[in-house]
Structure formats: C-alpha cells, structure tokens
Write a structure and sequence with these properties.
Number of helices: 9
Distance between the termini: 11 Å
Strand order of the largest sheet: 2-3-1-4-7
Strand content: 5-15%
Structural class: alpha/beta
Number of strands: 7
Shape: globular
Bound molecules: adenosine monophosphate
Largest sheet: 5 strands, parallel
Helix content: 40-55%
Radius of gyration: 16 Å
Length: 208
C-alpha cells in the first residue's frame, strides 16, 4: 500500500502516520525528519537544509526528489510506505508519478488558526521522535514514552509557522487537485484517535 499524507504543516500528519505505520506495517517516510537528521549531522548539505527549514522555505525540488528516490528504493519499502511531507510541490508529484503508482492520498484538514495554536506549543522528543504539546494535560516537558527532555523545533516559532503556512497555500495546496481522483479527506479537529478511526476503516477496505 503506497500512501501520501497531504496537509498543512501542523495538521497532524506525523501523528496519523505513526498510527498507520503500527497497524499496517509500512514505514513512515518523512522528508522533514530526514532533513533534520542530515542537519543534526552538520555536513555541508545538512547546514544548507537547516537554513531552508529555519526560515520556513522549501528545500529545492532536485535535492528533495533525489533524497526521496533513494529512500523509497530501500528494502523496507517493498510492501509500500506512507509519505509524510512529500510531495509538497507539483514538480515533486510529477517526479513521484514517474517512480510509482500511489494508491491513496489522505488529506488531513485543519483550520489555520488551530494549526498555529498547535504548532507553537508542539514539543518533540529528540530521542524517539514522539510528539507532545505543552498545552496537553499531564505535560511535564519530558517524553511520555522514554523520559527524554522535549524540545521545540526552531521552525515552530510563530513567524516561521506563518511563513510555512503561506508556502503550503501557494505550493502544496494545488496538489489537492492533482490527486483529486484518489483523495480521502479527514478532519483532525478532534483527538488523534478520532482522526485515525475513519482512516483505519478506509485503509482496511483498501487492503481487501
Ligand atoms: P516538516 O517536518 O514536514 O514540517 O518539514 C520541515 C521542513 O523541511 C519544511 O518546512 C521544509 O523546509 C523541509 N521539507 C520537508 N519536506 C519537504 C519537501 N517535500 N519539499 C521541500 N522541502 C521540504
């Protein structure tokens, strides 16, 4: 099963991807996570990627497509994958089309005001990648899964969040039309479980 999660940054794609990965045993491929990993390694490429990310701009298509292409050719992608944060532009979608057939595109929908609220309070575990929120009940600043202190991503600061939403509107939202023949739309207004329930039913039917 080859899936794309489409939606604005902060709409809940990563959280949803983790649930799908667990139940359907296909890897989550997040270009953002891959870029952050490169950036943390401090190579020349990594530093360049970091400068794009920190300002909320998109990494150029050529670089992004090459990295994605290498990733999906790995063995663990043989039975499918979930793309989280790719494609983000029409040229990326065209490049993907020439590589493989996507079964379904899940559009995660949330109002921008709610996204801004969620993103500026989002916290991430540097160790296991778990996502939490400083406004959620029981938040302690430490990862609920492994106890590591959580951090705020540099690009989750308010000004960068606004830039990222503008970039989404301009470059990524046109993909809703591009994939109109295979789109499944879900609202992420509720809890992660409420968001996941209809997606799970949809994907189970898709598998049969
Ligand atoms: P994310 O974690 O998906 O929000 O991505 C964080 C940042 O990585 C984005 O703001 C972009 O700078 C960069 N990025 C991630 N995926 C892509 C992509 N498909 N195309 C271009 N830039 C990307």
């Amino acid at each position: 099963m080859k899936l794309i999660l489409l939606g604005a940054p902060g709409s809940g794609k990563g959280t949803l991807a983790k649930k799908i990965t667990k139940d359907f045993e296909i890897p989550q491929i997040s270009t953002g996570d891959m870029f952050r990993q490169f950036a943390s390694e401090g190579s020349e490429l990594g530093l360049k990627l970091k400068s794009y990310m920190d300002s909320g701009k998109l990494v150029p298509d050529e670089v992004t497509i090459e990295i994605l292409k290498a990733r999906i050719s790995k063995d663990d992608c043989k039975n499918g994958f979930i793309l989280d944060g790719f494609p983000r532009t029409v040229p990326q979608a065209e490049a993907l089309k020439s590589l493989c057939e996507i079964d379904s595109v899940i559009l995660v929908d949330l109002a921008f005001e709610e996204i801004i609220k969620r993103l500026v309070s989002r916290r991430v575990c540097p160790s296991c990648g778990d996502i939490d929120n400083s406004e959620y009940e029981g938040y302690t600043g430490k990862c609920r899964k492994c106890g590591t202190p959580l951090y705020q991503r540099d690009d989750d600061k308010l000004e960068t969040v606004k830039n990222r939403l503008e970039v989404y509107e301009k470059n990524t939202a046109p993909l809703i039309n591009f994939y109109s023949d295979r789109l499944f739309k879900v609202s992420s207004k509720g809890t992660p479980e409420e968001t996941y329930a209809p997606v799970k039913t949809f994907l189970s039917n898709l598998e049969d």
